[in-house]
Q: What sequence folds into this?
């Protein structure tokens, strides 16, 4: 996996500390505790076999990496340390990270660097479109860092990127995964095929793991997106293994479905570095399968993609196809 220095100046990074499911003593919420990050907490046993991924850097992986670097673009595949990077890039699938690679927010699970962002790159949408064309993509996912330094949260660049891709590659489907734009009604006027916004964790843990976001505000983002464009597919994600209880998972799933959300993805949390939130537990493939069945059969999601290595953008085009088939058969 590509590596880089996230904290070259040795600055202390504030990370939330979350207790586990009650199997160990609560962690003192003190300055001393925060100063050592989350690495002091108890860890589960060694990573199970179902989470071990072999690096497969074939010709497509190398070519795509060359295209990204040649156009000075960033992918969330690299920035967030996604375990599926080798598989997806070999299949010529990638998720672009727009508005730079420096985020104004800090989440306990995320490997994207937190720092003051650079000025908006007005040429970025055109370069993304060129990359999509060069890669021969028919389905592209655009995600981005939070840009709380911008009045519109970067909505203008989001819309410009969608238009640029569609102009360069007619017929290419576009999925977007933005932040919450600091709340309020915000319509990405270019109208993506899929609008995604990730809730990520359960209500009890949300303010500790995602301190700059809000549980209800994230639900409102999904609710507003569906109200503004009823025909648009909406999507969200939950990360398991960060201290949630099983009953809380189903409550969060129901809250997401209550917004009218169509697709839900669920995956295992993997600690990017020792300075990030520790893994609370390894969620079994069987538990993920149970959540998927509950989500589709009981809650009515058009599709639930759940598994240890599933991420929001993993096989995103296939997720949409399955959801469309399910909706057509309803």
A:
């Amino acid at each position: 996996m590509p590596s880089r220095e996230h904290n070259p100046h040795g600055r202390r990074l504030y990370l939330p500390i979350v207790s586990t499911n009650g199997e160990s003593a609560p962690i003192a919420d003190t300055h001393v505790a925060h100063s050592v990050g989350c690495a002091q907490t108890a860890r589960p046993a060694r990573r199970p076999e179902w989470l071990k991924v072999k690096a497969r850097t074939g010709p497509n992986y190398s070519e795509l990496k060359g295209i990204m670097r040649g156009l000075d673009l960033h992918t969330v595949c690299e920035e967030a340390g996604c375990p599926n990077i080798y598989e997806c890039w070999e299949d010529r699938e990638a998720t672009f990270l727009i508005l730079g690679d420096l985020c104004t927010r800090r989440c306990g699970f995320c490997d994207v660097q937190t720092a003051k962002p650079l000025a908006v790159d007005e040429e970025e949408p055109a370069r993304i479109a060129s990359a999509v064309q060069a890669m021969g993509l028919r389905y592209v996912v655009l995600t981005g860092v939070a840009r709380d330094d911008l009045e519109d949260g970067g909505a203008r660049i989001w819309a410009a990127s969608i238009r640029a891709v569609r102009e360069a590659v007619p017929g290419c489907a576009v999925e977007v995964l933005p932040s919450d734009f600091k709340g309020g009604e915000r319509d990405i006027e270019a109208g993506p095929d899929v609008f995604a916004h990730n809730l990520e964790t359960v209500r009890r843990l949300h303010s500790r793991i995602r301190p700059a976001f809000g549980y209800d505000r994230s639900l409102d983002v999904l609710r507003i997106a569906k109200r503004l464009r009823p025909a648009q597919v909406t999507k969200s994600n939950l990360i398991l293994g960060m201290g949630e209880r099983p009953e809380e998972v189903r409550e969060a799933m129901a809250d997401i479905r209550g917004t009218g959300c169509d697709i839900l993805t669920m995956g295992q949390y993997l600690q990017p570095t020792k300075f990030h939130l520790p893994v609370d537990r390894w969620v079994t493939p069987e538990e993920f399968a149970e959540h998927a069945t509950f989500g589709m059969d009981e809650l009515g999601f058009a599709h639930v993609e759940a598994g240890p290595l599933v991420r929001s953008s993993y096989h995103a085009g296939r997720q949409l196809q399955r959801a469309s088939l399910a909706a057509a058969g309803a």
